[in-house]
Amino acid sequence: MIRVLVADDQRVVREGLSMVLALMKDVEVVGAVADGAEAVTLARAVQPDVVLMDLRMPRCDGVEATSRLRTEAPQVKVIVLTTYSDDRSVLDAIRAGARGYLTKDASGEQIHEALRMVLDDHAVIDPAVQRHLIDAIAGAPAARVELRNGLTPRETEVLSLMARGLSNAEIATRLVVSEGTVKSHINHLFAKIGARDRAQAVVYAFRHGLDET
Fold it and tell me: What domain range includes position 174?
């Protein structure tokens, strides 16, 4: 059973999401709140598996709430919900530790699949969000680190395949190695590029053009 907390300041969205989630046999809605501060407080109390987090909320927005959850409830995964696919705060949410990024017009099936994927430690980025995310990364003022950071050719290849959305099992099949070997490469490249999770590694890959190699 996937335990989900919904955070959105719009009541109709909050209740609508809760109703859609309640129809999923393997999903339990453990709470619905109107701002990020409430999301953090309730998440600490009920320990959901995933928080569906709106970006734009009063008092404490989705980026701040995601950052706080990273520290106060690190086992909780966050999927950001954006009204507009070009919302630049999505990049900030990635840096804060969010694992998934969906627009609010996502179907119930897409949301369900995203829940399962983030629990399996995959990054989930809506294609519409991804296009604007790449633009945001390309235009970010932050200094770029040297490409590869000591990555081996195989680690670079694994990172490139991750950025193109392949799972560990799919990468193992593509490279004709075991899934355990893939996981080992991923752990090593995380350490080298300073990524805390798969989503941040994908951002690094986008920033250095490794999604196209």
Answer: 153-212
Residue 147 lies in a domain: no
DSSP 213: -
27: in domain: yes
pLDDT of residue 14: 94
- For residue 196, the tally of other CB atoms under 10 A from its CB is 12
Structure-token pair, residue 40: 């953090």
- Look up residue 2 and give its DSSP letter: E
Instruction: Report residue 200 as tokens.
Output: 């941040």
3-state secondary structure 26-93: CEEEEEEECCHHHHHHHHHHHCCCEEEEECCCCCCCHHHHHHHHHHHCCCCEEEEEECCCCCCHHHHH
**C-alpha–C-alpha distance, residues 63 and 67, integer Å:** 6
Please determine, for residue 144, whether its predicted confidence score (pLDDT) is greater than 50.
Answer: no
Please name the residue that has the structure tokens 């990364």. 137
Do 83 and 117 share a domain, yes or no?
Answer: yes
Q: What is the CA radius of gyration of the chain?
A: 17
- In this structure, the number of other CB atoms found within 10 A of the CB of residue 111 comes to 22
The closest alpha carbon to 123, from 173, 196, 185, belongs to: 196
148 occurs within a structural domain: no
The pTM assigned to this predicted structure is: 0.69
